[in-house]
From TrEMBL:
Taxon lineage: Bacteria, Fusobacteriati, Fusobacteriota, Fusobacteriia, Fusobacteriales
Free-text function comment from the UniProt entry: Catalyzes the stereoinversion of LL-2,6-diaminopimelate (L,L-DAP) to meso-diaminopimelate (meso-DAP), a precursor of L-lysine and an essential component of the bacterial peptidoglycan.
List of catalytic residues: C70, C217
E.C. numbers: 5.1.1.7
Subcellular location: Cytoplasm
Biological pathway: Amino-acid biosynthesis; L-lysine biosynthesis via DAP pathway; DL-2,6-diaminopimelate from LL-2,6-diaminopimelate: step 1/1
Descriptive protein name: Diaminopimelate epimerase
Keyword field contains Cytoplasm: yes
Organism: Propionigenium maris DSM 9537
Gene that this sequence comes from: dapF
Alphabetical GO biological process terms: lysine biosynthetic process via diaminopimelate
Molecular functions (GO terms): diaminopimelate epimerase activity
Assembly mode: Homodimer.
PANTHER family in the record: DIAMINOPIMELATE EPIMERASE, DIAMINOPIMELATE EPIMERASE, CHLOROPLASTIC
One term under GO cellular component: cytosol
Major location (coarse): cytoplasm
């Protein structure tokens, strides 16, 4: 099975064409190829498909679960399509589980992509949370006896944003999984710990549902920028610094994310 591997700020993905894996159980395949010892190793697997809806991005987390959208992944997917001549020009629309996303390749020394990530949704049933609410912003939850203020939203996928004074002091690997599986979230949540450095810069470390702590999360960066702006802590244009590098987020009615993609490898996976 032919594969290519890419990363967006250290968030890494195996990318395949559906034609090479048609009929296979893709969740099982995702788990297998993403395994860091018994597979190629990645945070997720993305499968390219062209059908009557157009170009479709199918996303699988490292644990085999599906997710509607992946911000770093869609930039890498754009790069993969460009490298394989799967679209012409600099801009194309991609169908995802969170709707249609428009991507545009921008000028730069690296392969850079600007993505229209769509609109954040705050309504409880869309996030989803197990509570009827117009929005769930700065609400206190209790984890292991500790009171934590969380803001949750749907930003391509389910996200929870937590502002802290000192990111280095947060045990992301201890708290992340507990909040991911907190009873409020019927399908779990990605968890973003955020430290505001200035009104135009926020540092974010994400615990990802289905993948654990990653070096970057694109939808998470957007979620942090949206909530930061809503709370008056961040301007509309923000630099988001993550362990793997930085991306730029513009919060308008729609949210725009700009960041790089790097091709790491290509080869054949022995099934
Ligand atoms: N790494 C991603 C998000 C991938 C999906 C997520 N783990 C989920 O299950 O919702 C990004 O860059 O946005």
């Amino acid at each position: 099975m032919r594969f290519e591997k890419y990363h967006g700020l250290g968030n890494d993905f195996i990318i395949l064409n559906i034609e090479d894996v048609r009929g296979r159980n893709l969740s099982e395949l995702g788990k297998k190829v993403c395994h860091r010892n018994f597979g190629i190793g990645a945070d997720g697997m993305i499968v390219f498909e062209r059908n009557d809806r157009g170009i479709v991005m199918n996303f699988y987390n490292a644990d085999g679960t599906t997710a509607p959208m992946c911000g770093n992944g869609i930039r890498c997917f754009t790069h993969y399509m460009k490298n394989n001549g799967l679209f012409s020009g600099d801009s194309v629309s991609i169908q995802t589980g969170a709707g249609e996303m428009r991507v545009t390749i921008t000028e730069g020394t690296e392969f850079m992509v600007r993505v229209n990530m769509g609109r954040p949704i705050f309504e409880g049933s869309a996030i989803p949370i197990r509570e009827e609410a117009q929005e769930y912003i700065e609400k206190e939850i209790e984890v292991d006896g500790e009171k934590i203020k969380v803001s949750s939203l749907f930003m391509g996928t389910t996200h929870t944003v937590i502002f802290v004074d000192d990111l280095k002091g947060v045990d992301v690997e201890k708290l992340g999984p507990k909040i991911e599986k907190y009873e409020l979230y019927p399908v779990g949540t990605n968890v973003n710990f955020c430290e505001v450095k200035s009104s135009q810069e926020v540092h974010v470390t994400t615990w990802e549902r289905g993948a654990g702590m990653t070096l970057a999360c694109g939808t998470g960066a957007c979620a942090a920028a949206v909530i930061g702006n809503k709370l008056g802590r961040l301007e509309k244009d923000t630099k988001v610094v993550v362990p793997g590098g930085e991306m730029y987020i513009e919060v308008e009615e729609d949210v725009f994310m700009t960041g790089p993609s790097v091709k790491i490898a290509e080869g054949e996976f022995l099934l």
